[in-house]
Amino acid sequence: MSSVEKTGSDSGAIENRASRMREKLQKELEPVELVIEDVSYQHAGHAGMKGRTDGETHFNVKIVSKGFEGMNLVKRHRLVYDLLREELDSGLHALSIVSKTPSESPP
């Protein structure tokens, strides 16, 4: 499995948002590829960042999993949002999702 985390200012934190997201997605979807990128720095000064000090508010997620087979794009995204509901309820402001099955993703 490939897993990449690109985090901002809290990359040294023991349990940052990207790590929690990775754990939840790996546990439930057993991805063959998982890339989580913290792009919060690109949104500094935006409404979603006001009053936030941790900077972990905007993420790009690419996930390739057999668990998406038979699902359309909307169902895949709903599943990811449901799995990350706790993060969304606790400060995750924006999530960009690329969700594919292994047969849809080039090697």
Automatic annotation (TrEMBL):
Gene3D superfamilies assigned to the protein according to its UniProt record, in alphabetical order: BolA-like
InterPro entries: BolA, BolA-like_sf
Keyword Transit peptide: yes
Superkingdom as given in the UniProt entry: Eukaryota
GO biological process: iron-sulfur cluster assembly
Keywords: Chloroplast, Plastid, Transit peptide
Polar residues composition bias: residue spans: 1-10
Residue span of region Disordered: 1-25
Cellular component aspect of the GO annotation: chloroplast
Location relative to the cell: Plastid, Chloroplast
Record has Plastid as a keyword: yes
SUPFAM superfamilies, per the entry: BolA-like (SSF82657)
Family, as annotated: Belongs to the BolA/IbaG family.
Stated name of the protein: Uncharacterized protein
